[in-house]
Amino acid sequence: MAQPVRFTVVLVAALVTASCSTALFKIKPVTELPAIPQDARSADAGGVTVRVAPLLTDEESQELFEANLPLSGVLPLRLGLVLQSGLAIELKRARFHLRDGQNREWKLLSFKQVVSRIIKDNEVVAYNPDSRKQFEKDFGAYHLDLETPLVSTEPQREGFLFFKKPNKRPVETGQQLTLTVERLPQTATITIN
Fold first, then answer.
1. Is 158's pLDDT higher than 80?
2. Residues ≥6 apart with Cβ < 8 Å to 9
3. Between 166 and which of 101, 104, 137, 152 could a Cys-Cys bridge form, CB atoms 3.0 to 4.6 Å apart?
């Protein structure tokens, strides 16, 4: 192999390695997220209050996740759960349904599905697997934990659920959405916007 070609191959390999060793996206730490406002929309679900924070703007989504989720057809919906009774509430059975004004149901995505969508939408094809794991960990910290029961020693929980718009188009602001939460002691319905 000729000397200039060998140098070029080594230089390209070094640049690719260096570019792939950084984080895929810079996620704002969860601790910097302000609490859900007290005047947020809410509904009682029989011993649990379900609260929905105002929807994020494109800019807020970009600031939190370094990705414009609404532009890619994904709505990050921030929820708060507050235990009102002393009895533990099992959350893993809970079902969350989001419908728009045309009665179309939006699909609930796992945070790993959202991570994959962000990577695909941003056309990231070469990356360090450890960078992806770190991105999943940082992004997953925002996901609403539904695996752990809500108990009196930790009566409040906040996090995001991510819903995909039915027609794969960007999420518009100002549309009316309805969240229904089933399989809690009672069904809760909250109109958003």
1. yes
2. 1
3. 104
